[in-house]
Amino acid sequence: MAKKSKTVFVCQECGYESPRWLGQCICGAWNSFVEEVIREAPEDDIRRRGSASKTTEGRVKSVKPVNLPSVQSGESTRIDTGIGELNRVLGGGLVNGSLTLISGEPGIGKSTIIIQAAASISRNLGKVLYVSGEESEEQIKMRADRVCKGDLSQLFLLSETNMEAVMTAIENLKPAFLIIDSIQTMYTDTIDSAPGSVSQVRACGNMLMNIGKSGQIPVFIVAHVTKSGELAGPKIVEHLVDTVLQFTGERNQDLRILRSFKNRFGTTSEIGAFEMREEGLVEVENLSATFLEGLSQNACGSMPTAVYEGTRPLLLEIQALTAPSNVGFARRSSIGIDSSRLNMIIAVLERKAGMNLLNRDIYVNIVGGLKPEGTSTDLAAALAIWSDETGKPVPPRTLAIGEIGLTGELRPVQNAEKLAKEADRMGFEYMLLPKRSVERIKDKPKNMKLIGVSTVAEAIAVFQKK
Q: What's the rounded mean pLDDT across residues 337-354?
């Protein structure tokens, strides 16, 4: 019997399906519906799949639940990718049968880190299949010769976009690791829409999930990003995979940051740092020194601070610039700090510290391109603004951490003791932090003095005395 087909209109933003065209989707997007033809499987195939779980007598097979203590943990089956920073972000390495989605802007280094990991895994575990829908085998070979060292005889390349052909190659090769570059270029014959559409991405994602889970093959999937920096395609792909990684950084700079936004096998607060060089991506061991490399002493508007990302403390530099406003309203611009939080810090400085910033343009930047998620940088941002506005430089070898409340008080930050140890290791002499954080630190640094303050005004007063 011939396959049946139906026509639906699919939103390219959220994947919502409608039997007719709509001007606005339920997700709020306008003119996002595209007509797609979906071919259904024959009735014989449907009956065959429906009877697969039944016995010969027609009864449904009984499924026995398994008690939780008898289930073996998969923590011991981690696969070493050969890249320490990648292992850190993944939670200790790859897990058999896991799906990992990695995204980033073009040229940021996605294909480079994948080919490096594939080369290392091929030397340790055996066959690795690299499926590319965007590049030819010759292009991948040129990159591998440049960034990979050692034996590459177990690394296999396939330039193909048809999922049925990819599945056939997987069955014949039986790889230990699978790479799909990228999911937006793949298509399946069961759907008539173009590659990259919502239906194709969703269907190919389901097929890759079945391949990985059934064969216990770890799968790396490369995804494109939109102009706004979000993952292209439907959100259902992010729900299908186990881990979502994102590469960030400026293409005109060497530093690259790998962050996990979803991880079923580890924390999502971990980051990995790399430096892009001619021979590929190189791990950055001392990330704090990299962020503080250009720190200048006795400079107005510059304030070092510390954050805790995953399992590592990091030292950063916050820079602030104030200027007279030439228009009817003052501009507030920030890079690395949430704009609404910056507005709150400015309001606290005006009401609780007596500063007049109404007609001043304020620009705040975290050097290095990192965007910390916590609030421990509030005090440093406030002191950087105060320093540039008053023209008084911050005392040398001094950093500050602390969360600012609306009443001007300083709230304690987590992992203050570890941040203090990192600052002491980096050679700082003074550290400004909330009093309650000082009281909680049992093992005080030997070469650095901790200065406890209760309010923003008190912190500014400490700097005025120095």
A: 94
